[in-house]
Amino acid sequence: MDHFEEDLVEALKEIVRSGNWQCVGSKSKFKSPCTKLYSDDGEDIVLVHTEDDRFWAMDSSCPHEGGPLDLGDIEDLGDGRLALICPWHHFDFCLDTGASSTGLQNQVYDVRVVDDMVYINTQSSLSLSPIPSTNTAPQENLLPVEVASNPSENTLCFWATKVLCTADPKEKVALTKEIQEWWNSGKITEVGEATPPAQPSRKDNLTVLEPGKIKRGKGGTQASRIALLHSLANIEQWAIDLSWDVIARFSEFTLNGGNSLPRQFFSDFVKVAGDEAKHYQLLEERITELGSYFGALPVHNALWQSASDTSHDLLARLAIVHMVHEARGLDVHPQTLSRFATQGDQRSVEVLEVIYSDEITHVAAGLRWFTYICSEEGRNCLTTFHELVKLYFKGYLKPPFNTEGRKIAGMTEEWYIPLVKPSS
Ligand code: FES
Ligand SMILES: [Fe+2]
Ligand SMILES: [Fe+2]
């Protein structure tokens, strides 16, 4: 037996010994650079095949904000190692270790090629085509399309719907601030009712692309900072809409016992809407100071998907939008901040710090109303949260967690650690 055959036999033995190696097909199937493999546990994988015929595998959902790494580019890190670059904000993930220079970490998987067949070491079942979901969450967009025909004009819901139907972000911000003032001063007293639009309005000149289709030039450091701020401004614009949507859509929500939501629920989300408007404005001003403008770059509207998926279930909405996505925003804050700090962009650092301290209160608001509803309805908060996240959020929650920020918001580890992928 020559050396090569011995290696082959040893490799085959190892695969047989370990039950976690999965054959995903012959290597000719996997064109360079990336192929997405769908996983039965929702944590899809990107298989990287380089020109020099080497393979790597990592989670395909970017640990930053869920960007599609399978649409990313491969870059040399300069020390012989290669990285996969996320197409959304250009964070790098080393193919060998999954580590990013931003401090984030992606899950990597061992890959072996034996006899021209590709094997990945993972417990999940992988497929080249999407695996039908086995959860019972409604898949279609259930948001009603029409705005209610005769809403009373002096209600919070009437105005909430107005913001959602306002396309210009500057007008969205101005109107949000006015409504907040009217609500706080008692000029509006009724919550009222309204049917919010299925999708908030956006300006025609804003290029909204499918998630994953955003390709930005590499640019210098200023260009990459503008791109990151632009992306955050886009998130804040959606966050304004999400706040008004939760108010309008769930204004008539009744608890199991028949009670309506307390008035404080609406006051809390008016405050959240006001904060999001402030955040958008701060970021927009900063982008302008740096010589660009909001709308200069394409944006994605992936965030609204969570609103659509949870349009019929307030607990799910609070869990996914505020306790998963907004809490994730706290997790990535330290890395984002250090990107600006290391480039000496102190003004952006100040803006990000204002946003961060407000965002803690948004996670706290989501958690507060989630636990309120659960306790009023006699449900176990933690079990309900874990069930809803498994139902409505694709994949696992990923470290690193901002344990301190989450704790200030009231979210201790028992909320999120059980939702992390078990180590194989
Ligand atoms: S989502 Fe990947 S870098 Fe932001
Ligand atoms: Fe915000
Ligand atoms: Fe927020």
Automatic annotation (TrEMBL):
<dbReference type="GO" id="GO:0051537">
    <property type="term" value="F:2 iron, 2 sulfur cluster binding"/>
</dbReference>
<dbReference type="InterPro" id="IPR036922">
    <property type="entry name" value="Rieske_2Fe-2S_sf"/>
</dbReference>
<dbReference type="InterPro" id="IPR007402">
    <property type="entry name" value="DUF455"/>
</dbReference>
<dbReference type="InterPro" id="IPR009078">
    <property type="entry name" value="Ferritin-like_SF"/>
</dbReference>
<keyword id="KW-0411">Iron-sulfur</keyword>
<keyword id="KW-0001">2Fe-2S</keyword>
<dbReference type="Pfam" id="PF04305">
    <property type="entry name" value="DUF455"/>
</dbReference>
<protein>
    <submittedName>
        <fullName>Uncharacterized protein LOC115805944</fullName>
    </submittedName>
</protein>
<dbReference type="InterPro" id="IPR054716">
    <property type="entry name" value="Sol_Rieske_ferrdox_dom"/>
</dbReference>
<dbReference type="GO" id="GO:0046872">
    <property type="term" value="F:metal ion binding"/>
</dbReference>
<dbReference type="InterPro" id="IPR017941">
    <property type="entry name" value="Rieske_2Fe-2S"/>
</dbReference>
<keyword id="KW-0408">Iron</keyword>
<feature type="domain" description="Rieske">
    <location>
        <begin position="21"/>
        <end position="120"/>
    </location>
</feature>
<keyword id="KW-0479">Metal-binding</keyword>
<dbReference type="Pfam" id="PF22543">
    <property type="entry name" value="Rieske_4"/>
</dbReference>
